[in-house]
Amino acid sequence: MELGQNAVRLASAKEKTELDSNAIYLGNLNTVEADLKLPLKGKYGSSIQWESKETLFISHTGKVTRPTFGVGNRKVVLVATLTYEGEETRKTFEATVLQEEYKAKIVAVNPLTVRTNVGEQPELPTVVIVKNDTGSYTVSPVSWDPVKEEAYRQPGFFSIHGTVEGSPLKALVTIQVVDKAQETGDHVKRLQEFQGQKVSLESKSEFGAAMHRFLQFVRSMDDDQMLYNFRAAATGDTKGAQPMTGWDAPECNLKGHTTGHYLSSLALAYNATGDSVLLGKIQYMVTELGKCQTALSEQAGYGQGFLSAYSEEQFNLLEQYTTYPDIWAPYYTLHKIMAGLLDCYELADQSEALDICDKLGHWLHNRLSRLPREQLHKMWSLYIAGEFGGMNEVLAKLYAITGNEHYLMTAKYFDNEKLFLPMKENIDTLGNMHANQHIPQVIGALKLFEVAGDKAYFNIAENFWTMVTQSHSYSIGGTGETEMFREPDAIAGFLTDKTAETCASYNMLKLTKELFQFNPRKTYMDYYEKALYNHILASENSRKAEGGSTYFMPLAPGSIKKFDTHENTCCHGTGLENHFKYQEAIYFHDEDRLYVNLYIPSRLDWSEQGLSLVQNRDRDGLETVHFYIEGGPETTLMFRIPDWVSGPVQVKINGEPCRDLEYEHGYLKLRKVWKKDEIELMLPCSLRLVGVSDDHTLKSLAYGPYVLAAISGEQDYLSWSYSEQELLEQVIQQKDNPLTFILDVVEFVPLYLIQDERYHVYFKLAR
What we know:
Blueprint: H1 5-10, H2 13-23, E1 47-52, E2 74-84, E3 87-97, E4 106-109, E5 112-117, E6 127-132, E7 137-144, E8 156-164, E9 170-178, E10 192-193, E11 199-201, H3 206-220, H4 223-226, H5 228-234, H6 257-273, H7 276-297, H8 313-318, H9 330-348, H10 351-368, H11 373-380, H12 391-402, H13 405-412, H14 417-424, H15 435-452, H16 455-471, H17 502-518, H18 522-536, E12 549-550, E13 563-564, H19 570-578, E14 587-589, E15 593-596, E16 602-606, E17 611-616, E18 624-630, E19 634-640, E20 650-653, E21 656-657, E22 662-664, E23 667-673, E24 676-682, E25 687-692, E26 695-703, E27 706-711, E28 719-720, H20 724-730, E29 732-733, E30 741-743, E31 746-750, E32 759-760, E33 763-765
Domain Non-reducing end beta-L-arabinofuranosidase-like GH127 catalytic: 203-584
Domain Bacterial Ig-like: 110-166
Pfam families: aBig_2, Beta-AFase-like_GH127_cat, Big_4, Glyco_hydro127M
């Protein structure tokens, strides 16, 4: 917390050391690979001396030496000793230094095929897919031989060779010259979601309670503090507000990102509740950001329409390939701001928010349209510095709203061939790629398919989703370790305290929901339910309305959750949004079908169909769900049969059992003219074990949609010498609390109920 000059003067020496210790900012210590800047002087005058507990990897001055490949990442404790007039305070930091990347040998280069129109020079990829001596796939830069103009003057085929960086092997691309190269597909969504307060959560359910806690927190947030960095950059007048902290601190290069998430959070919360207090906050935030944009445009050295919490310097430095931590993802931060503004426009009807975003879009197009394609690809390939969030998605949305073709063009400037090429070819190259850097890019690809129809973008999204959910996900649905994807099916070796970044699940759910609307497959919603119940719901502190979220969901033996309340990390930002999105995927519809995907107590008003529905269940009950339906013409209800259902489904309508049930693609179909009816849906549920592909002894225990965690402080894996069937038979379900289970005095409960206790999601079976 920043103090006024008088308060600083009156603070004791000890208080000044404590204030300085709280103000120390070292950047993202979860994935350290560059030297740290360790301050030697505090904001309020303290002298700071640093000690590293492992100088082999981080020196006392902050110089980083990454462990060689195979050694693994290393945790290093840094101790800051702050002194002022004889008083002393110590503060401890923990940094994770990433091991060096494997210096792989390329053993094969995948041939490629590219199509182009007659008379148009083909756009050849800047990378090729290669196979390494480890058996894994990745991409490598390539330089192609010159293409002769006569080769593409008429339809046909021709080939070009290329030189692969770091290998004597040659690349081969076959160019197909056709009359029209782009393959388009039907890009109209088959299902629509319900907007606004059409869906409301039952307040006493675990989901409704989580939303209410975050509603309390968001209502209490200080708008002027959220505007602090923008006003400081634009006018210098911060209206007496306290500065932001953590990743949004004035000295941090990522400042502004949390404000973007805050805009989205306000818009989502208002959309879900209609709360007038939230609308007032939205209007104030948008108006004040508009003033900042106007003030910046009037200053020398700023392009028209620019808006940020800092100057254009970071964008300039990125074009010179400056690396992190000298800059920190300027386009990532810009995406959060633009996404927040568009949410305020679309969900809260704020036309000024669209105007601000439109001006930013013009600034973006003017800046990026002058850069050569090769430079853009190199910028986006820079680790962290080049991370751009979902810029392609927000620009595609802006194009859909405004019809301005420049925005569609600019969205495609963010095509990242390092990711898109292998996804197009359906080859898994995700190992050691930053998970949450790339998931939003795929969401953007799907949005480009929606607005423009290029089928290749849909294939990228669908292939990526399948790879992540089938080969890169933990039992809770989360993905990534120390923010990174690992090799396919490598789970057992990466159960640490830095698994499953919450941002990654936020974005995977967003991608899943969009894919489901194009292709209503049950498997999409099976995954959605898993990640929603076991990661997103589990990521918030259910005992305090303090806005905290987990950065990682630890899965190491004896893990404990850490709730980020003040650091303003990326996961704190998405955490502000997560708990206003529970109702989004419960129901979808087409003209006369209603899809019931999630069994979450809720109310639906489908006024266009003249139909209303209430879904109820006991708080801890899973097997019986009641639906109360009124009105409407003949309508088909489609009930998802979850993958955890352990026996035949039973249905009663108005108390009468239904026989000869009809199913379609994993959904139960009930069609009739609904008047005032009650449906009782019985979904049999039992305990089951969930394994991992790379270690048959590691298991998770699950019941219905919930992954269960064993409450235990043991730091080694809990182990039982049962067979799988024997273990399931030994587990006792508590009669008074059906979501609590006992196995040999060890208590298992759903992960979302765990707060301050140490827990085990994975355990070992010796047989």
